[in-house]
Amino acid sequence: MNDSEKALFKDKLKTLLSEIEEYLEKSEDSAEAVSPDKGLGRLSRMEAMQDQQMVLELRRRQKRRKLEVINALARVEDGNFGSCMFCGGAIAYDRLEAFPEVQTCVSCA
Ligand SMILES: [Zn+2]
Predict the structure, then answer these.
(1) Is residue 15 part of a domain?
(2) Is residue 52 part of a domain?
(3) pLDDT tens across 23-80, in order?
(4) CA 106–ligand 1 middle distance (angstroms)
(5) Range of 34's domain?
(6) What share of the chain is helix, strand, coil (3-state, %, to 5)?
(7) Structural domain count of the chain
(8) In angstroms, what is the span from residue 60 Cα to ligand 1's centroid?
(9) Is 109 within a domain?
(10) What's the whole-model pTM score?
């Protein structure tokens, strides 16, 4: 991978990171527990709780992804970006384009 490709992925990762941070910030309120005195009917309260569970799960995933993105940015800096962390082989360019934070090639995934 050449320097301009690396710079491109670095930009991609930074954008991804700010998107994730923005999402985590925006979803903070909806992730809070549904208060019993919210004046909702029984059914809508259940719906509200289901929504909350979904938001919690999404937030969990995004938090994990955030760590992976930060990790990938560090690997751009130390020159290991684009190499599989298991076999050391090059990760396919298409794969990196779709998921710039991946750390493994297809065979090791
Ligand atoms: Zn591999």
Answers:
(1) yes
(2) yes
(3) 999 998 887 877 766 666 777 888 888 989 999 999 999 999 999 999 999 999 999 9
(4) 7
(5) 3-80
(6) 65, 0, 35
(7) 1
(8) 26
(9) no
(10) 0.83
